[in-house]
């Protein structure tokens, strides 16, 4: 599966995509826009590395950040919903995680939370990639996010 595969699947559905990225820092948007002709499918991307940017640009509630932390499915869900609401896209994917080095007892290095919003539905997932290194965690998060979007193109219910 490549970014071109994802773009083609979205194109066949007539959907546009928005991204909301934290730990990947725009890697998903870059992978998609590396493909010539992606502008008919890629609507926009938000790089929201700080908590303030998650709140300001995507409408993530400060209460959600305080209660669950930035690396949580609750925040990933609000990031994806916020990206969808603030774009002309039919589907949005979000990523927030701990690429490392570091982490904690409760949130280890390599944990990445994903959100996928389409229509009124928001799906979330958490993946534990492990302490495989910052670049590897970010690359794994990129691949997983694209896989989630591709899988969603086979389902119905997007607005």
From TrEMBL:
Pfam families: CinA. Residues 3-151 form the CinA C-terminal domain. This is Competence damage-inducible protein A. It comes from Roseicyclus marinus.
